[in-house]
């Protein structure tokens, strides 16, 4: 027999979630947090009902789609709405805003973005305030801190294998909302490149497709990391010939496009988009790019757990503007590596980041990363 829901337990779990993070959160984040606390999937409608209807004196709306405990917002760190968010930093042709990505996109002028390259929080949970605090304190949490290898300290990795069914549902909803907010801001034919993970890429791809974007394939980043390949925990001697998961040898970057108007040639003439910039006269843009883990030099410049190398990012960013004109957006800018790549190849770029700590990192890292000389491995 199914366990009966205790009256008020969803409400109490919402309160406990807000008290834990001591910050505002989106309805999707609250739903994931509450489901994790209760150990089962909680309908988003129930959470939204408590946030917006049933208990107006307990929770308050502090921005577009964001909520907090009543009277908590005065002490909780806020994310500026797009209308009030000033440019936090500018360098060359790069502009960085401190704002919530979805808020910023919904307020963005329609048909003003020509390409997107982003490495989003595709586990959602790992970038909550509570998990970021654990990461920065070296306490792990969702972030697994791998051991040193060959004298090198490896970057933390999010544990996507621990995501519950409710958190996976929230992941899909988040990317559906992201796609729906992004689509109007894109010019016709704009390409969108989204970093993913083999464990969750199918959900991300499905959600973005449902939002109205065309799937145009997948860019394979050939890179060997420390993820996977381990023998069974506490039984490695008993099963020496077994790997629990494949050793990671690649990383999927999902490729989408806003539908073109007319033919690709007509769209290129009108908007400068619809295709991908060729590598050279003889070599088209390919869907396999040889890469390597981000080196120590770049990680020292830009302290971010998911930092991608400039040698890879510059190739992808260069490819999304076929006519070498327009604006490249990274709505989850982190420490600004995408903006640095755009600056290095001569493109105008915009980044949006809500975490003030990463904003401060980006203020110095965008310039430093963009000025690095890098080598481009070839397949």
TrEMBL record:
Annotated transmembrane regions: none
The keyword Transferase appears for this protein: yes
Ranges for domain DNA methylase N-4/N-6: 114-363
Keywords annotated in UniProt: Methyltransferase, Transferase
Enzyme Commission number(s) from the entry: 2.1.1.-
PROSITE patterns tied to this protein: N6_MTASE
EC category: transferase
Keyword Nucleotide-binding assigned: no
Protein family: Belongs to the N(4)/N(6)-methyltransferase family.
Protein name per the record: Methyltransferase
Organism: Gordonia alkaliphila
Source organism phylogeny: Bacteria, Bacillati, Actinomycetota, Actinomycetes, Mycobacteriales
């Amino acid at each position: 027999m199914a366990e009966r829901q205790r009256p008020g337990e969803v409400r109490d779990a919402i309160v406990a979630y807000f008290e834990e993070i001591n910050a505002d959160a989106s309805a999707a984040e609250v739903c994931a947090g509450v489901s994790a606390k209760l150990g089962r999937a909680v309908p988003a409608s129930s959470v939204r009902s408590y946030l917006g209807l049933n208990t107006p004196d307990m929770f308050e709306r502090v921005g577009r789609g964001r909520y907090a405990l009543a009277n908590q917002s005065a002490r909780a760190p806020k994310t500026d709405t797009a209308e009030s968010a000033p440019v936090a930093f500018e360098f060359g042709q790069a502009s960085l805003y401190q704002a919530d990505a979805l808020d910023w996109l919904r307020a963005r002028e329609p048909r003003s973005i020509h390409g997107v390259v982003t490495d989003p929080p595709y586990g959602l949970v790992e970038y909550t305030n509570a998990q970021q605090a654990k990461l920065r304190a070296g306490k792990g949490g969702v972030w697994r801190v791998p051991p040193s290898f060959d004298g090198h300290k490896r970057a933390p990795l999010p544990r996507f294998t621990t995501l519950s069914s409710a958190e996976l549902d929230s992941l899909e909803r988040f990317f559906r909302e992201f796609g729906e907010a992004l689509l109007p801001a894109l010019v016709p034919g704009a390409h969108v490149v989204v970093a993913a993970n083999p464990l969750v890429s199918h959900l991300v791809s499905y959600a973005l497709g449902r939002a109205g974007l065309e799937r145009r394939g997948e860019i394979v980043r050939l890179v060997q990391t420390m993820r996977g390949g381990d023998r069974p925990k506490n039984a490695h001697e008993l099963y020496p010939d077994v790997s629990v998961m494949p050793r990671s040898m690649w990383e999927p970057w999902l490729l989408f496009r806003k539908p073109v108007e007319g033919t690709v040639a007509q769209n290129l003439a009108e908007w400068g988009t619809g295709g991908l910039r060729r590598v050279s006269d003889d070599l088209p843009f390919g869907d396999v790019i040889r890469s390597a883990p981000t080196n120590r030099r770049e990680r020292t410049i830009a302290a971010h757990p998911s930092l991608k190398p400039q040698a890879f990012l510059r190739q992808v960013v260069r490819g999304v503007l076929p006519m070498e004109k327009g604006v490249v957006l990274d709505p989850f800018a982190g420490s600004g590596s995408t903006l640095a790549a755009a600056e290095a190849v001569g493109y105008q770029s915009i980044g949006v980041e809500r975490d003030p700590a990463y904003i401060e990192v980006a203020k110095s890292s965008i310039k430093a990363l963009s000025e690095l000389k890098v080598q481009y491995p070839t397949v």
